[in-house]
Design brief:
By secondary structure, the chain is α/β, with parallel strands linked by helices. The chain is built from twelve helices and nine strands.
């Protein structure tokens, strides 16, 4: 194996995040054999043109054959079908991981299927991304400083977990091992709910009967920064909301209750209560953003 965690890495789905991982592998592991698979030739042509890798495939079985690490970077709903299709090419000692933002669903479906067939599946979720999509917007810098959550409910041997952690760390990320349900509850609060609230702000801006010319003229950095993420792909986010619906509904119920509380404060002319509400929000943001030393 040498100094590389994996000699051959195959990424299935070189979009924004899959493409960014590929670029980070090329930058940080130049001796690794990097493979990219896509259904369409266009992203593969872009990868070749940018010098990411010459090992590009539209044949998924060929892309998987002999790979030591297989990264599923397609939409989550395609993971299981794709994994079944390439199963015969997945070596028993190869690690299969994914980069989906929902973990319990993935382990219930793809992970369970692979485990039953004696393949090694460990979940990954790089906390990185932008509102843009496609490999043309990818960047190796996206992984720099990111946290990657690792989930291993199927009990894959620790040596493989350590190799996968070493892979992400080699790309400039840190790793954090979690239980899938705890992961999903956490990201519902710090990723999925904020996306929904950004969408709500954008929808609210155009639903109040205010002339569009006025909205466009006055919308400044506050509106842009708050609503930026809701420009992300609606199809992908609809899948995320569907696959993590229990945790997201719980988060949204809490948000609605807190919003009603704020409305009551305003209706009761409780200015000091509003100030305390806003102060608590600022304190919460500071606390959440404080990483453990």
């Amino acid at each position: 194996m040498g100094s590389l965690p994996f000699q051959t890495v195959a990424i299935f789905g070189p979009g924004l995040l899959g493409g960014s991982i590929a670029m980070a592998v090329r930058q940080n592991m130049p001796d690794c054999e990097l493979r990219l698979w896509a259904r369409r030739e266009q992203p593969l042509e872009f990868a070749r043109r940018q010098g990411v890798t010459e090992h590009t495939y539209t044949d998924a079985i060929a892309a998987a054959k002999g790979a030591e690490l297989i990264i599923l970077a397609t939409p989550i709903g395609a993971f299981e079908e794709l994994s079944r299709y390439i199963l015969s090419s997945i070596a028993p000692t190869a690690v299969v991981t994914d980069i989906g933002s929902v973990k319990a669903y993935v382990h219930r479906t793809t992970g369970a299927m692979l485990t039953e067939r004696r393949r090694l599946f460990i979940g990954s979720h790089p906390m990185a991304g932008t509102e843009k999509s496609g490999i043309e917007n990818a960047s190796a810098a996206l992984l720099q400083g990111a946290t990657v959550a690792l989930t291993n409910p199927h009990g894959v041997a620790e040596e493989y977990v350590e190799r996968l952690a070493a892979f992400w760390q080699a790309l400039g990320s840190s790793t954090y091992v979690m239980e899938p349900v705890n992961h999903d509850r956490t990201v519902a609060r710090i990723s999925h709910a904020p996306h929904i609230l950004a969408a709500l702000c954008a929808r609210g801006a155009v639903s109040g009967g205010i002339p569009m010319a006025d909205l466009q003229r006055l919308a400044a950095s506050g509106f842009r920064d708050t609503t930026r993420v809701c420009e992300g792909g609606a199809g992908m986010w609809a899948d995320i909301l569907w696959e993590n619906d229990v945790a997201i509904r719980a988060a949204m119920h809490d948000c609605v209750a807190d919003l009603h509380y704020l409305i009551d404060l305003l209706e009761n002319q409780d200015r000091e209560g509003v100030r305390r509400w806003l102060e608590a929000a600022g304190d919460a943001r500071i606390t959440v953003r404080q990483k453990e030393s």
